Amino acid sequence: MTKFNIILAVIVLFMLPFGLSAQNCHITGRVAVPALQGKNIAVLNMNTGKSLASTKIVDSVFTLDIEVSEPFVGMLKTDPQNNDARSYYYLRIVGEPGNIYADLVTDSLSGTPLNDRFYDFSKWCNNEVSAISAYYSKMDQMISMPREEREKQVREYQDRTRMLFLMMKDTYTANKSNAMGALVMENYLEYEAEDYESVVEMLEGAAPVVTTYQPLKTKLAAMEKVSHTAAGKPFIDLDLTDYKTKKPVKLSKVINGKVALIDFWASWCGPCRREIPNIKKIHEQYGSKDFVVISLNVWDKPDAQAKAIKDLGMTWTQLTDATRNATDTYGIDGIPQILLIGKDGKIIARDLRGEEIEKAVKKALEK
């Protein structure tokens, strides 16, 4: 063995214990929910979705142990309480060496440096969001307030909202080198509608534990699709099914060079059903050879779709997407999503609701 190889072997020998050795992460906690007693709780790796360890909840408490080489974003998740698969409790944590305590009912988290900091941040955020939300409950009162008082309330709301987003952004910047940064960015994007390019810029220089965080990657992929289908961009064609004939049809064939109003909806979606009267009115008032209204049913069951179409008197063009391709293509993670497309095939607007729909349609048809 050469002198160089001996030196290299020694360096590697000394690097391994310090860089790759796993340490114990001991998690204890509480889930005071009667329906969950005797059921399982697991700690998941949020990047892989895989369970790292699981145990039963006994007398409302649980204990979990995992080996951690470097901090990662995890989740504590219980079994469902009942037959509804969504009736589980969960809490995001940072998996790091040490003793972690978590209460899934009160969302309490403590015991290690990053978890302590993330809990303080989450508690502050929740308090601010509650305070900001309180302004909405005073909307009716504001109408009858003297002008000066009303303007003061509006300024307070705007200032507090701006400070919330600035604080979240600053907290992310201070933690983009560790696992907490991934969780802070996830929270930030839940409340603040940043554009795709801005988020990409914010993620530059972040640690791999942040940039590889799967929920962030999923959100970023959806944001990229939104940016590709934003106002001013050409609409993207879709392979769909005609509701009446049950035959395949392309969206472009249905639009056929007309101004098109497209409503992504589902029968089970309350806000979707509340928009149907607005769309029905527009169809009756503006329906012509130059304009087409399209309801695109997504994430639904055929029988439920058929009943809703009949009950709501939806007599205009009905299309169906039995896959998630339509919503994935347009970066849609919530419905209703109402788009308006111009005669030139470019998207005029997204996220239309209420009175805005008719205003946008009228303006497009006047061109």
Tell me briefly what this model is.
The chain has 367 residues and is of the alpha+beta class. It contains 13 helices and 15 strands.
N-to-C order of helices and strands? HEEEEEEEEHHHHHHHEEHEHEHEHEEH
In total, the number of domains comes to 3
Mean pLDDT: 90
Distance between the termini: 81 Å
Main sheet attributes: strand count, strand direction, barrel closure? 7 strands, mixed
Key features of this structure:
single chain, 367 residues, alpha+beta, Immunoglobulin-like, Glutaredoxin, 3 domains, four-stranded mixed beta sheet, 13 helices, 15 strands, globular, disordered N terminus
Describe this protein's structure.
The longest helix has 29 residues, at 147-175. A hairpin with a 5-residue loop joins β2 and β3 (51-56). This protein has helices at residues 3-20, 113-137, 139-143, 147-175, 179-191, 196-203, 208-211, 214-228, 251-255, 270-286, 302-311, 325-329, 355-366; strands at 23-30, 40-45, 51-56, 61-68, 72-78, 90-95, 98-103, 108-110, 239-242, 248-250, 259-265, 291-297, 317-320, 337-341, 347-349. Helices cover 45% and strands 23% of the residues. The strands form 3 sheets. The protein has a 7-stranded mixed sheet. A 4-stranded mixed sheet has the order 4-1-7-8. It folds into 3 domains: 3-110, Sandwich (Immunoglobulin-like), CATH 2.60.40; 113-228, no CATH class; 239-366, Glutaredoxin (3-Layer(aba) Sandwich). The chain has 13 helices and 15 strands. α2 (113-137) runs antiparallel to α4, α4 packs antiparallel against α5 and α10 (270-286) packs parallel to α13. By secondary structure, the protein is an alpha+beta fold.
